[in-house]
Amino acid sequence: MAAETARYLTFTLNGESYALDIFHVKEILEYRSLTVVPMMPDFIRGVINLRGRAVPVIDLAIRFARGTTTVKRRTTIIIVHIRETALPDNEDGTPALTESGGGQDIGILVDAVNKVVTLDEGAMEPAPAFGAGIRADYISGMARRDDDFLIVLDVSRVLSISDMVSLGDLARGETPADVDAGTVPEPR
């Protein structure tokens, strides 16, 4: 029986190589100016107008606590589609997904997009429990490549809408208890 293969879009972020399943990628755009939206968490750099729709753009460097992406000639926005709802995770810890195929388009700001690669199951190793510099649950695996590894992201976890909403609440000084009780502190 042949090993299963999948295609991944590779990109760089702060000198590190990452990949995400091409299945989630809708399009790749040259960097364009963003409209900054007040009171958003730092990792949401702004929104772009994508054929009449406002699409939020997430800076993965900030999301991974690795500084801010500096806009250069090859800076790119990867548009991905996330089918997650704002529902909590399933009992087994997997993200809750909609049955209707709804969801949200989200832009990911990266230093540069490299190429699409095909990886088979044999090239993938499980996510490390530590040492990758980002949360282990953001990683679906590590792919061996030449003398190095390619960090394969679990895009549904990295861009978890419910997780980002929680982080946004905390960034504004709201605690989970405040949000649940409806007692949100006044902005400073």
From TrEMBL:
All residue ranges annotated as the CheW-like domain in the record: 5-164
> One GO term of the cellular component aspect?
cytosol
Output the superkingdom of the source species: Bacteria
| Pfam family name, one | CheW
Q: Which GO terms describe its biological process?
A: chemotaxis; signal transduction
Listed transmembrane segments: none
Q: Which InterPro entries match?
A: CheW, CheW-like_dom_sf, CheW-lke_dom
The protein here is known as Chemotaxis protein CheW
What species was this sequence derived from?
Actinoplanes auranticolor
Q: Which gene produces this protein?
A: cheW-1
